[in-house]
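Researcher: We are triaging several targets before committing to wet-lab work. For this one, the compound of interest is flavin-adenine dinucleotide. I'm pasting the protein sequence and the ligand SMILES. What I need is the predicted three-dimensional arrangement of the protein with the ligand bound, expressed as structure tokens, so it can go straight into our comparison scripts without reformatting.
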Amino acid sequence: MPDSGLPGTSAEVLIVGGGPAGAAAAFWLATHGHAVTIIEKRTFPREKTCGDALTPRAVRQLDDMGLSSAFAASHRYEGVRVTGLERELTMQWPEHSEYGRHGYVIRRAELDTIVAEHAVAAGATLLQGHEAVRPLVSRGFVRGAVVQGPTGAPFELMAKYVVVADGANSRFGRSLGTIRSQDWPYATAIRAYWTTPRHAEPWIESALDLRDRNDRAVPGYGWVFPAGDGTANIGVGLLSTFRDFKTVNTAHLLEAYVARIAERWQLDPSTPLRRPVSGRIPMGGSVAPTAGPTYLVVGDAAGVVNPFNGDGIDYAYETARLAADVLHDALATNDASSLQRYSKQLDDRYGQYFKVARLFARIVGRPVMMREMTRIGLHNRTLMEWALRIMSNELRPDETGLAELAYGAMSTVAKFAPNA
Ligand SMILES: Cc1cc2nc3c(=O)[nH]c(=O)nc-3n(C[C@H](O)[C@H](O)[C@H](O)COP(=O)(O)OP(=O)(O)OC[C@H]3O[C@@H](n4cnc5c(N)ncnc54)[C@H](O)[C@@H]3O)c2cc1C
């Protein structure tokens, strides 16, 4: 994908990072008519370690960006098959007034290129192979970044506002003073691709009974996400709330998982298409502050991944859109105080839900609890269906079904758990 222009020296908004969060923020800002520049240190199409599964929430955001037809040829799936303790349950995505009942599995190299190209088509400038090496600070206000291109000397790119969208490690965000709450749950996950004749199945699969090479139960989850292109994305994820978290070798855990599913998925466990790659997943809104006087933090840089299931693409798109709206107001009214609304909006929208999810992450970090919940859930379809609704954050604001009642009870408990 070619760059959209030569490096300018100023923009209204500078966006650090061109992943889902950065590209979506750029799209919405450009659509509002603002001069926006994305700095992306890699070159599209670029790989990103991910399960590649888009939830109905993410699909909704892509549709809103006018990208529905871009995914017509991608692998569409209808819901989730949960497996564990010799049982399985297949469930379609729940009905919801705002979200559809399908998702896609699409490699990130492709997905992120499509969204970045779309932002450029809307008017954003994209500088690939350019790294924001440090913020430009003037009288205490962030006013851009020092940018290093693929060749030549670093240059200064000035902007009225900056969006921090540099992902899970967020070095740029840290240099502005963002901090991740160290004692809040996070996850690590590892994935690779395998060839399988079952690549076109319309269900993603999630295993709740992971076992290590010594056949000991490990409270994490395994996944098989059929990609429709002859392969499936297969991985395992582990929560930091597990007592032995730091001693688990996730590469070995993945090996053990793939060996167990190999026959069912008709694949050769010894031949992943490429070496497995792992990544850390900050979650539950664990990063603060999410706003400064002239900057906003979005996506993984803000730690907005759902602790129930590790999904972050949807929240990256959603937080980027909220940030773009706030910045649009600030630019239109020439009033930077609008930016302070953003953190409150994040809290109103995700604060309590993430707190419940963090509490859940602490509970399932105990192997005995994980096993019991898996056993009970997989014996009761109704229970599992409302669990899916809660875990995918598809509660209905206008209806009180079993899922909403159960969530309400969990939410009350979470209110009395100050450290969740
Ligand atoms: C193994 C694994 C599996 C996952 N599976 C799923 C899944 O199936 N579904 C799901 O919804 N989520 C999943 N996630 C989470 C998901 O990948 C993230 O939530 C999502 O990528 C967040 O998007 P982002 O734009 O915030 O960050 P990123 O996608 O990380 O994008 C950040 C971008 O910023 C660039 N960048 C960083 N620093 C700089 C700099 N200084 N200058 C310029 N550019 C910079 C990077 O090159 C990168 O392109 C998974 C995560 C992992 C680790």
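Researcher: Any quick observations?
Model: The mean pLDDT is 94.
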